[in-house]
Design a protein that fits this description.
Layout (H helix, E strand, L loop, with lengths): L3 E9 L3 H12 L5 E3 L13 E2 L9 E2 H14 L3 E3 L3 E5 L5 E5 L4 E9 L3 E3 L5 H8 L4 E2 L2 H4 L7 E5 L3 H11 L4 E5 L9 H9 L3 E4 L2 E9 L2 E9 L5 E5 L2 E4 L3 E3 L31 E3 L11 H22 L2
The structure holds NADPH dihydro-nicotinamide-adenine-dinucleotide phosphate.
């Protein structure tokens, strides 16, 4: 049997939420242990330029920002570990967690900062330009600015797609929205807003066949009408995917309250508390609305402060 390790504070996940929680927890002498997770640095590591995080007047790349956050957390002796937590048991007073390298960790407090993953279509051409940072994005608020004065295409018909299409319409000369059915999923008000926007063209029953491009990035999209089977090409430099996110919360499902998609519910709004005492959540694992690095960092701070107060109360 492996030795049991005890900690005051276990942080699961290493995006802006996890690192901010680590900085606060470490400075409060909680000696936090962090497991970086499957995607060290989180979603920002797939973003090129971050221009909307306060404090970087010239902007910073996502991967660089995550290196800075990691250094800041380690400066105060956060024990940052590669690997991930694969199983938890939150049924007792001590929260048991198992890492992929076989460690059993008993934590007085756990901060969940496992984030969410944007869904993509899965086309090889989409993945190619995503990986090369050349015109595929799942976040208009993050990347829309780079397509100012250009033409973009966005896939999806939910509230996110409508919100992002509207956001892009203010920056881009034209936005083409690809809706796979003959109706929207979004709320009526959001649907009406995109329909009323002059430079948004909506193509119903339309799916993406291939993202087209060259060595510099995306140049267009070939789409197919799934009723008529007719195909045509749409020129664009930015291809946005807004078909939903999946919160990375599967391992907590047996213990924590979530909504129907899996976003962890806050036990008390305005705090980071979950329904299990001593377990806190920060960032996109509980946020389907804002999903920004700065909001994740803010809730990471809240989680560390809540965990610190919980520990202080335990110790009486
Ligand atoms: P949703 O799951 O609501 O919508 C996803 C959309 O993507 C659907 O239109 C779906 O099509 C489409 N889609 C899924 N897979 C594909 C695919 N492979 N190809 C083409 N299209 C695809 O996700 P959202 O992110 O939009 O919203 C998530 C939640 O967050 C919702 O509850 C929403 O109301 C909420 N939200 C609220 C906002 C607000 O109020 N301001 C803003 C943003 C989100 P289909 O309809 O055919 O299934």
């Amino acid at each position: 049997m492996s030795e049991i390790e005890k900690t005051n504070c276990l942080i699961i996940g290493s995006g802006p939420a996890g690192y901010t929680a680590a900085i606060y927890a470490a400075r409060a002498d909680m000696n936090p242990v962090m497991y970086e997770g499957l995607q060290p640095g989180g979603q920002l590591t797939t973003t090129n330029e971050v221009e909307n995080f306060p404090g970087y007047p010239e902007g910073i790349t996502g991967p660089e920002m995550m290196i800075e956050l990691k250094k800041q957390a380690q400066r105060f002796d956060t024990d940052v570990r590669p690997g991930f937590i694969e199983k938890v048991d939150f049924s007792g007073d001590v929260h048991k967690c198992w890492s992929d390298d076989g460690k059993e960790i008993h934590a007085k407090t756990v901060i969940i900062a496992t984030g969410a993953s944007a869904k993509y279509l899965g086309l090889p051409s989409e993945q190619k330009y995503l990986e090369m940072g050349g015109g595929v994005s799942a976040c208009a608020v993050c990347d829309g600015f780079f397509y100012k004065g250009q033409e973009t295409v966005i896939v999806g018909a939910g509230d996110s797609a409508c919100e992002e299409a509207h956001y892009l319409s203010k920056l881009c000369t034209k936005v083409t929205m690809l809706v796979r059915r003959d109706e929207f999923r979004a709320s009526k008000i959001m649907e009406d807003r995109v329909k009323k926007t002059e430079n948004i063209e909506i193509l119903f029953n339309t799916e993406t066949e291939e993202v087209l491009g060259d060595d510099n990035g995306v140049t267009g999209v070939r789409v197919i009408n799934n009723k008529t089977k007719e195909t045509h090409e749409i020129p664009c430099t930015g291809f946005f995917v807004a078909i939903g996110h999946k919160p990375n919360t599967d391992i907590f499902k047996d213990y924590l309250n979530t909504d129907e998609v899996g976003y962890i519910s806050y036990e008390q709004p305005g705090t980071s508390r979950t329904n299990v005492a001593g377990v806190f959540v920060a960032g996109d694992a509980a946020d389907k609305t804002y999903r920004q690095a700065v909001t994740a960092a803010g809730t990471g701070c809240m989680a560390a402060l809540d965990a610190e107060r919980y520990l202080a109360a335990l110790e009486g």
